[in-house]
Amino acid sequence: MDFTGEAERKTNRGKRKENMNSTSGLMSFALLLVGLGGAIGSMVRFAIGNWLVPWLVPGNSNLSTTAVNVIGSFLLGCLAANFPDRSKSVYLLFGVGFCGGFTTFSTFSLELLEALLKGNPMSGVLHCLANVFLGLAAVFLGFMLFRAA
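Below the sequence we write its predicted structure tokens.
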């Protein structure tokens, strides 16, 4: 009988199982970070859209979406510049999670459609251009300001 070979097979199986458990543990931790960041980002977005912007600029419902998209684009640019390895915990928490829950591109698209359906194409076009160009400028600015030297 080959006891050494049997012991090696058992050891290797144990290592494979251990590696799978540590990988799934890391994935669970990553999901937790993304979920936590997303929850916080969503709450901050809700607060800005329902309390801060209406208090600062009454009557302008699109401004909150534009503000959130520009701020979120800037933050994501800052994070992307500092964390080229997108698997880092800080990037997962803030870049994927917080910015994903905070920014509102789907809301932006719905608001654009609603402006068009209400017969306000100029308002819709201005809203679209402001979000796209200001968002691009903000992500560029954030990336350039915080890029690792």
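Residues 1-9, 15-21 have pLDDT under 50 and may be disordered.
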